Amino acid sequence: MLFEEFQHLARLSVVDALDPDEQALFDAGRLAFGRDAELFLKECRKLNAVFALSLSPCAPDPRTKARLFARIRRETREGGFVRFPCQEEAPGLEAFSLGSVDRR
Hints:
There is one protein chain. By secondary structure, the protein is mainly alpha-helical. The chain folds into two domains: 3-54, no CATH class; 62-97, no CATH class. It has three helices and two strands. The protein has helices at residues 3-14, 20-54, 62-77, and strands at 81-82, 96-97. Strands 1-2 form a two-stranded antiparallel sheet. The model is unreliable at 100-104 (pLDDT under 50).
């Protein structure tokens, strides 16, 4: 692996975008390039943090917000629990009760 290839994988690693095969190559490159790899990875992480902090938050689309609150109201009326779409992907994750939510 060339250092340029490692740099490409490092940039993807910082944003958790490596597939398992790429992750194995990245790990091997990290070991092979040692200190240079760690310095480059540190710089990538710093740039990622600076980029994330530079983004301005924006208000959610009013229609999306309305649909979300309607779903929460509907599901809390039906049993007091909210189930998230990703629950199938996280076995053992239990639904939670919203307890004292206004159930109008």
